[in-house]
Amino acid sequence: MSEALLEVQNLKKYYSASKGMFKKFGDSVKAVDGVSFTIEKGEVFGLVGESGSGKSTIGKTILRLHEKTDGDVMFKGKDVFSLSRKELRQLRVQTQLVFQDPFSSLNPRLRVGDAIGEAMVEHGLVSKREVRERVLEVMDKCGLSPFHIDRYPHEFSGGQRQRIVIARAMALNPEFIVMDEPVAALDVSIQAQIINLFSDLQRENGLSYLFISHDLSVVEHLCTKIAIMYLGNIVELAPKEELFDHPLHPYTKALLSAIPIPDPTAKRERIILTGDIPSPINPPSGCKFRTRCPMATDLCAEKAPDYREAGAGHFVACHYV
Amino acid sequence: MNETLLQVKHLQTNFYTENGVVKAVNDVSFAIREGETVCIVGESGCGKSITALSLMQLIPENGKVEGGEINFSGKNLLDLSKKDIRRLRGNEIGMIFQEPMTSLNPVFTIGEQMIEPIQEHLLLSKKDAYKKAMELITMLGIPNAEKIVNLYPHELSGGMLQRIMIAIALSCNPKLIIADEPTTALDVTIQAQILDLLRDIKKEFNTSMLLITHDLGVVAEMADYVVVMYAGKVVEEGPVLELFKNPQHPYTKGLLKAKPVIGERKDRLYTIAGQVPNLVDLHEACYFADRCEHAMDICRMKQPVLTEIAKGQKAACWLYEDGENR
Predict the structure, then answer these.
(1) What tens digit of pLDDT does each residue of B20-33 get?
(2) DSSP letters for A78-144
(3) How far is Cα B245 from Cα A179, in angstroms, rounded to an integer?
(4) Which of A201, A221, A222, A269 should we substitute to test contact with B (largest number of B Cβ atoms within 10 Å)?
(5) What value does the mean pLDDT take over residues A295-320?
(6) Which fold has domain B4-92+176-276?
(7) Residue boundaries of the structural domains of chain B
(8) What is the pTM of this model?
């Protein structure tokens, strides 16, 4: 029986844009503008979108690294934004984050062993005496050799640094990991190694991931459920097979058709979207996608489409689906 | 068959670092014919970008082109003086880089940066150069040309800037465009627009293109001919259809298998074990041997030579050498 690990209800996160040089009072960037989804235990949930769609903001806000503007986030039945100090510390153990750039997410002055072990000691999970043993155990799980423990981050390649970052996250035995573009900076041959490591760790430990990525092919490989974002909203959400075999939203269709396939004989209908993603400070009225949508009509400019269930577990926000 | 426009023979580019000599481009040969798109594909550090920079002689200071020939429309570029090379860059050979945000000067307007090379190379008056710039902007599908020319780079999106870069590269009607990862920094939907644009340009002007990329999907869409590089060496080359249908070198095979593809649902991805070797102090061996499933004794002792295996398709691998050739 599956149970909800994380429930997000109508989450909003606005950043004020009225500071600094551009003093237009009252402007705000609606980075996340009313997003709802549920991640079940053991599920790998993919969040896909282009730059500025708000996918990273969601990742940070649900872990309370940012405060929300509105909405609810429940982790294991508890409201993340009304946790006591003690409960919040506990959340920091149960949830972890892996970022895109393994070069800037490791302290260059900390040896690998210390980087991995630091949080374990801080949270009192192991005594100082046991820490080295535990670190070696985690490193082994993540495909690092024991002699790496006393080295510094600069001695490692990108792929291996990402392994260190993953080991650091795994050290606390978390239940839920937010992965923010964890393989985007890696080469294809290394990317495949890291993706397989994610699958192994997930299966062995019954982990749940929120996997944020712009790369639909990676998401298709790894995730069980996928949400597509555009300018702060989820436009479509469905189980993987359903989303890839029967995409409903015109944006999803365009995204799928825009990905170059490594097969020169592949013939397919391309949908080339015109124009750029509009600014989130001043998004289009009604449906935010209408300025680039090949199917847009007057209705789309007047009214934002409802986010509704179009089939079992398949949610979409479009007037013409 | 069309005539050969660019012929690179045994190109050797070395970098002198504290740790030793890095053979970034190690005996690389390939050719580009008129109207042809050649893709160099490989992972970071394989020498693909340095190959492109060597052609233009834009190598960083601690590097040097130390051997080989680059024949471009009858001249060896390595023999030209600095002044002559300068005249060639941006004129007969246009270049587009990965990061459109950092390739343009932030303190000059788009118009100023477009007009400068046009005046310099085509010897037009400022007024005519301006007109030409406007034409180019409109041709590349950017609306409001009059407004765009007066904007500064930070006021445009990445996709727009890359269009401007392409416009600048096209402005002097080059015979060859070198594009180094032109869509890597862009979103998928914008990437599709730019690739479409590059295809149109090729069709309309019959421009040859050297496209450097790590993305096999982009290669499949754009290339006529593919060169696969690994650790400074060409390991395989061939026409795009053959190479994807029938890859020969274990590295090419591995790359194709390791990439997750939409619609192919596999339980596990194929991986190439290990990582790219350090390019300092490589000794005589196949550089891929340590990561290769098929490595034999000879692979660790002697470097394989690029030889024709199937029609038009070449690979550097001992698997395809019979006893007599060893």
Answers:
(1) 899 999 999 999 99
(2) EEGGG--HHHHHHHHHHEEEE-S-TTTSS-TTS-HHHHHHHHHHHTTSS-TTTHHHHHHHHHHHTT-
(3) 34
(4) A221
(5) 94
(6) Rossmann fold (3.40.50)
(7) 4-92+176-276, 107-171
(8) 0.89
